[in-house]
Structure formats: structure tokens, C-alpha cells
Design goal:
about 120 residues; alpha+beta; Alpha-Beta Plaits; four-stranded antiparallel sheet; two-stranded antiparallel sheet; about 35% strand; YCII-related domain-containing protein; YCII; Dimeric_a/b-barrel
Amino acid sequence: MKYLCLVYYDEKKMQQLSQQEWDSLNQECMACVDGLTESGHFLDGAPLLSTETATTLRMRDNKALVTDGPFAETKEQLAGFYMLEARDMNEAIRLAEKIPPARYGCVEIRPVRELMPQNNSR
């Protein structure tokens, strides 16, 4: 089953890291991805730019409403994601424990809901 691991942290706190600390964290993240790939659990993932670069889209009455910035003010911001393959939630949790930014914020783990095409044959 697929699990989406959403990585959150406080951007203001992360901006306080030294360049060496930031580089070290990024190296840890790349090593984590390498390990998850080698074990066959990593499907996809990417870090995100800061929320300052975000745009939010809402569709209302068939009209696009576009605003700069994230959807909501929060203590922690979405920083990236890992798409993992795991047997069950327990294994997904065990794998997500390896995600380095978890020690700065949190990782939300959610099962992916598979959409099934409708069978219109009679």
C-alpha cells in the first residue's frame, strides 16, 4: 500500500540553522532517500520551497480565486513529501521515523486512497 508522508516544520526556526547545519540536514535527507530506495520503499518525494513562494487556488462558482501565500497560518509549514510503499501503517511509521526533518517538526503519514475507474459494462 502507498503512504504519503508529509514533512512539516517551522520555517522561521529552520532559517536559524547555519549553512553547515542546513547542508548536513540535506545530506541526511538524500541518504535517507537512498536507503529507502535500496529497500524498495521509496516511490517519490521532493522538498518544497518556502511558503513565501506559494500560491493558493480556490474554485468558487466556476471562477478561479488566486491568492499569494499558503492556505492558512500555521505553526509548522509543509516542507516536502515522501511517497512510500509499505505493508501497513506500522511499517509506514517505522520507515517515516528515518526521515531526518521529523526531529525539527513532524511527519504526517496518510494512506493513499486508490481511485477505481467505474465499470459501465452491463
